[in-house]
Hints:
By secondary structure, the chain is an alpha/beta fold. It contains ten helices and 16 strands. The strands form three sheets. Strands 3, 5, 6, 7, 8, 15 and 16 form a seven-stranded mixed beta sheet that branches. The chain has a six-stranded parallel beta sheet with strand order 11-10-9-12-13-14, with helices on both faces. A three-stranded antiparallel beta sheet has the order 2-1-4, covered by helices on one side. Helix 5 (170-178) links the parallel strand 10 (162-167) and strand 11. The longest helix has 16 residues, at 265-280. The radius of gyration is 20 Å and the shape is globular. The two termini are 16 Å apart.
Amino acid sequence: MHTRATQLKAPGEIVLLERDLAVGPDEVLVKGHLSGICGSDKAMFRGDIPEKITLPLWIGHESGGTIVEVGSKVREYKPGDRVMVFNWCNTMSDYYVVPVAGLQPVPDGLDMDLAALGEPIACAMYSGLTCGATLGDVAVVYGMGFAGQIIAQAVKRMGAHTVVAIDVAEHKLALARRLGCDVAVNAAKQDPVQSVLDLTKGHGADVVIEAAGSEESMNHATAMLKHNGILALYSWITQPVTLKIGRWHDDGLQIRTTGLVHHTHQERVIWTPWTLRPVIQGLVNVRPLITHEFPLAKVAEAFAVADKDPTAIKVVVRN
Length: 319
């Protein structure tokens, strides 16, 4: 199979090239529907390259589509099946090859635009559903990008009394308010820690979900928690940071990671339908978070917008 495929050639340099694909015995060939630009894609575009990754890189992993060919040993899927991708497999292409373990069936009732974003939606929903927020809590979501907006909706639906959205972009905070957040704090204009302490009469938040991914946000999240509060870690920080963790011990904080895709394949297969059920039921609104769309031929422009446009939340490339 011959396809157009997106490559990160160097930091800041995205190119669309021709590529030949071959389907292995445990793999399938997928005709892509659309792909999302993930925060990790954007970070690598900016030059934040994790140690395990080398350039040039065939990029793209948020996607879904329709199977057009299966390998000789594949029994789980057949041509025509609709699938979601949970694998780094160069999805910003017309066609891509995925190992069977990197796929999930599209649940009934989920249309393909959202199914193609099934991985980031499921990851955010998993974080919200497992962060520990419960009925009556004050829950803070620090970072109101695509994941943060979903997490905030989930914890509100789960019964949190007050959901606090923190970001430095006013338009993201305005969207968070429209989607159900109770309090919005602009960390560029207000001290976010003091704002939460004032709101809680000095006690601190019951739960803070860290979804901004910076040294500052991590330390703020620690400082604004109550004694025995829960710090739920969502964001992927790839470079060393300096953390003030004295409170983790002194105040008995509960630290939990909420990364769905970093569990085993077997666990992910079970949990993903559970995380997507509220989306199918209409309890969590994802569509307003898709702010920009480009055809594959303009993938370099899509990355530039994701990198520089402050209004961008989820930028997608339609295959």
